Amino acid sequence: MANVFAGIKSIDQSSGKTAGLKKVTKDMQTWRKDYKPEGATPTPAAPAAAKKPATPVKITKPAVCEERNGNWQIEYQTGPEPLTVSGINMKQQVYIFGCEGATILLEGKAKNIVFDSCKKTKLIFDNAVSSIEIVNCKGVQVQCKGVVPSVAIDKTDGCLVYISWEGREVQFVTSKSSEMNVAFPQGAGSDDYVEKPIPEQFVHKITDDLSISSDAIELTPPTLVVVEEQPTPVEDPPGPRTLISLEQLEQVHAAASAAERAERLTSALGVQHYPVNPRTCVWVDFCFGVLNFARDEAHLPPEKALALLTLAHEVYTFATDPFSINGDSSVSKISEPVPQNAESHEDAETAPVTTIPTPEIRVDPDAYPSVEAVYEQFHEKIRQASGVVSENDKAQDTETPSLPTPFSPMEVARIVTFFTSTFFRHLRAYQYVSRVQRSNIVRECPLPIETPLPPPSLADATLQTE
Description:
- By secondary structure, the protein is an alpha/beta fold.
- The protein contains 10 helices and 16 strands.
- A hairpin with a 5-residue loop joins strand 15 and strand 16.
């Protein structure tokens, strides 16, 4: 340790690094009480307070009311004194901007009016050719003495629109706005106005045709209406009777497999001899395909699916019944009498079966309706199911009852496409095969006879030892 201190002392400090330093004596050490100067220590000055930002001075722009390039420009109007602008014609547009607490009167019929960024301002005008637009306003009132076709309200909070009795057919287009109300007289020449709120909330739903439907939510409670109970009608409601019920349709759709669905549909249709009757087999398969289309492709509700099944049955009956042209098509020959020995397959295997041949009645193919006649029948049925009444029906019967579940235009298009690609395509091919005479072609071909090869001789055989 002594060597260390000796080494420190031996360091040469004459290089000038400490030459300018002065030794601090005790009287220079102010922290000692003995050497503190007498008297109060001066208090350090407080930091200067930060200046508050000056309140921005509201710049008042000069009011403008002049005609520029054939249009009227009204800006920055204030005060309770009304401003009247007269002589406005149908080729002029009126633009009102930045007014606050003002009252503006427009005399004449303007092309269109724009009411932009105004507060607590009243606007009264006679007529407008196209529309009036209310944009970025707060607490404004607009009155139309005559007629304006459209009122557009955008980004506005608080707006009251007065409409005359002549202009009550006006339409409102609103977006991003609140506290909107419309007032209109109770009748022609009445001074009593009825004020109604414009809906601000909507309920949106996805429909079956993959579109969006929107319904407005009323802000005021609906008026209580007392409806007298009507007596139950004795007659059946208008519309076609369905082949199966809703409960039976649900049971068919609830089946686990396609085979089970076909069995349940057969039972619901009342067919007991489906496997042995080819005509009934085609009918049941056709009904099965119609129900699959209604559920998987058209996405129809159960009521419309049953209506489509009934329509398909009537068209099928008309096409397959040769007597449906001049007779009733409600009953077809899709069901045939079946002998008792054909009711069960198990009984047919155990007990002997006695088959009684019945004479087959052949019908001329020309007795069946043509494809064009069947399509006309289908067109008439789908027109009635869609709720469309022709001019002839209107002239004959003005009180024709409509179906309870008419098809929409989109559903009608899908149904027509389905029937065209399936039913009418097969019907045209079937009628072509049965009606067009084809010549018999007989071809005689010689039957080649091959001579088998002779067996090998026994001399060439070899014996194998086990």
